[in-house]
Amino acid sequence: MQIDFGMLGLIFVINFAYITLNTLRFLLVMRGYRYFAAFMSVIEITIYVLGLSLVLNRLDNPINLIVYALGYGVGVYVGMMLEDKLALGYTMISVILPDPKSPLPAVLRSNGFGVTQHVAYGLEGERLALEILAPRKNERRLYDLIKTTAPNAFIIAYEPRYISGGFWLKRVKRRNARGKR
User: Fold this and answer.
1) Residue 54: which of 23, 2, 15, 1 has the closest Cα?
2) How does pLDDT run across 43-55, given as a tens digit for each residue?
3) What is the pTM of this model?
4) What letter would DSSP give residue 118?
5) Which residues have CB under 8 Å from 50's CB, separation 6+?
6) Long-range pairs of 22-26 with CB within 8 A, sequence gap ≥ 24
7) Averaged over 95-116, what is the pLDDT?
8) C-alpha distance across the termini of the chain, in Å
9) Rounded distance between C-alpha atoms, residue 144 and residue 136, angstroms
10) pLDDT attached to residue 176
11) What CA–CA distance (Å, rounded) separates 32 from 26?
């Protein structure tokens, strides 16, 4: 059995590209970028058919299948890393602080984050609860500010699917108005 390294490389690259696009497309759909995801799927399926046909036409060599699977695994990993770097969308962070007089809301606001705060009651009494909406690209900086200012904070993060009104609506309108000038 002769090994064609050029063919193996092609199989790997094609499946790597397909799965990277597949992972990104899936994440774009989940974040509401439907049109871009639909366009991406056309390219993705073309690459998929090409790669699969290369393997199916050469099933006599099991190394082709192994390289195809390796391209799949590496493509998933790289797709997730790319999406993490793109940091599309927003994150919603709920923070519960044991100190109702914590300086954290002021620190976050002075760093450009919108914060809604209210008094909450837990097992051990009064707490300060915060709701913070932030672009995902600022998520790490937000966590660092929280951990530095209030190391004993309880933090929960999730991705909102719909945003309307409030702090963000005003900021987006201002940004759009500046862009039209």
Assistant:
1) 15
2) 999 998 988 888 8
3) 0.62
4) E
5) 14
6) 22/48, 22/75, 22/79, 23/75, 23/76, 23/78, 23/79, 23/80, 23/83, 24/79, 24/82, 24/83
7) 93
8) 67
9) 14
10) 47
11) 10
